[in-house]
Amino acid sequence: MQWSYTIGRIAGTDIKVHVTFLLVVGWWALMGYSQGGPTAALASALALLALFACVLLHEFGHILMARRFGVRTPDVILLPIGGVARLERIPEEPRQELLIALAGPAVTLAIAVILYLVLRLGGSGAQVAELSEHQPFLAFLVTVNIYLLLFNLIPAFPMDGGRVLRALLASRLGLVRGTRIAATLGQSLAVIGGLYGLTREEPLLILVAFFVFLGASAEAAAVETRAAGQGLQVGQMMVTNFRTVPIHATLAQAVNLLLSGEQREFPVVDNYGRTEGILTRDNLIKGLSQRGPDSGVAEAMTPNVPTVPPTLGFQEALDRLRASHLPALPVVDVSGTLVGLLTMDNITDLLLIRRAQG
Ligand code: ZN
Questions:
Q1: Confidence (pLDDT) at 12
Q2: What is the Å distance from ligand 1's center to 9 Cα?
Q3: 59, 97, 219, 265: which one is catalytic?
Q4: 262 among known catalytic residues
Q5: Has this prediction a pTM greater than 0.90?
Q6: What is the DSSP string of 99-167?
Q7: C-alpha 271 – ligand 1 centre gap (Å)
Q8: Architecture of domain 234-356
Q9: How, if at all, do strands 338-343 and 328-332 pair?
Q10: Residue ranges matching CATH 3.10.580.10 in the chain
């Protein structure tokens, strides 16, 4: 996710903080300062640090449960709406997703119960409200964890409650339909919550609604794409009718190629047909303006581009294409021969066709 920064790493998972989370921390400290000066600002900051730790423990509930099912978690991002553990993949079994979704709230419940017992054994009375006089900090944490628990169990996908709902729906209706229904409900709740936040002037609620809405549509789209591409290999989804540019060609020659057809990205090959790089339309335009039409393709192209084998599976190929930030990747077989071009346009067309054919 953009605007997030890595602050540490625990058990193979990067801990990232989104800039909006830092804004909330700053706002909170400022509120404390305005109410009681530096001491209150420090107390506010400490309270937030504890909250931060509780949210992280909640996320590691998800992460460790996911690991039990062989699903790794490359990173967890802290947003104002809580944490988002980015699982490598959705587990195959809806039952596994159910357990992963419930593990976070279970940790939060455990924290709340333990802190509550600590308070009670401290002999300060039974009610959390009464305790807040004597033990403001712990009582605050108990309250916050109960709030976190209830909030996360709202069935607004992709929040935990929504994931539980998706898992239950997926076990009966399949992953795609289950996700579609859960995401629609999540977005509806986000719109209602966002409108309520607007009328009540609750900026945090509006922010939460915004993240839930975006998260629901992104996850639903990812599930649909994966389902549509299931079983496909690069060899079936690459462009096979394409032209290459010799590495000794001039930009003027490349311009002629670009204007003579629909192709936008050209593999650049040496005398033996080996791929040296890719000349994108942007490369070409930039090279023309900086060095002129008589300059060489070799200086203008993007060199050392990653190649993909024709036997690579759909999801892995899509991930590599996205990670490369290039519009096309050369497809090269085991003998080193350039056999195709993997482009997002072609993948989109293929998925549309597969969906139309059911
Ligand atoms: Zn959670």
A1: 84
A2: 19
A3: 59
A4: no
A5: no
A6: HHHHHHHHHHHHHHHHHHHHHHHTTS-S-HHHHHHH-HHHHHHHHHHHHHHHHHTS--TTSHHHHHHHH
A7: 55
A8: Roll (3.10)
A9: antiparallel
A10: 234-356
